[in-house]
Design brief:
The protein is mostly helical. The protein has seven helices and no strands. It folds into two domains: 56 residues, no CATH class; 54 residues, Serine Threonine Protein Phosphatase 5, Tetratricopeptide repeat (Alpha Horseshoe). 75% of the residues lie in helices and 0% in strands. This is Tetratricopeptide repeat protein.
Length: 131
């Protein structure tokens, strides 16, 4: 997959060269690195691609998958503060999301914020109780 995208990205005459070279290729490298457990590379490569993912098209759900993989790499690499920022941004769109608040609770614990961890877990529990 990465080789095919790299070949396409090298076609400088194509009208979509920048999207392939600067977005699709780093995204593919990031996904491949994540699959290998190379969290630092996954974070770096996906971090370059994410702000421009819309240039490659795809649905919101498809772009969200890349964001979730980036978030997973942040958590697995122990970058709790960075993961916290991503989760808080996601919470603006899904304030009562159970998986999101449970993950946020874990991240808050890792960053030494037990009160916020309890609040996040309580949001998840309230949502589950109302379901």
């Amino acid at each position: 997959m990465v080789a095919a995208i790299k070949a396409r990205a090298s076609e400088t005459a194509a009208h979509d060269h920048a999207a392939w070279a600067e977005v699709a290729l780093p995204a593919a490298r990031g996904i491949a690195a994540h699959a290998k457990g190379d969290w630092a590379t996954a974070i770096r490569e996906l971090g370059m691609a994410l702000p421009r993912m819309a240039e490659c098209g795809g649905s919101h759900a498809q772009r969200d998958l890349f964001e979730q993989i980036h978030l997973d790499a942040l958590v697995r690499d122990g970058r709790a503060s960075a993961a916290q920022q991503v989760l808080e941004m996601r919470r603006t769109y899904d304030p009562d999301g159970v998986p999101l608040n449970l993950m946020l609770g874990d991240v808050y614990e890792k960053t030494g914020l037990p009160d916020l961890a309890a609040q996040a877990r309580a949001r998840a529990e309230r949502t589950l109780a109302g379901a």
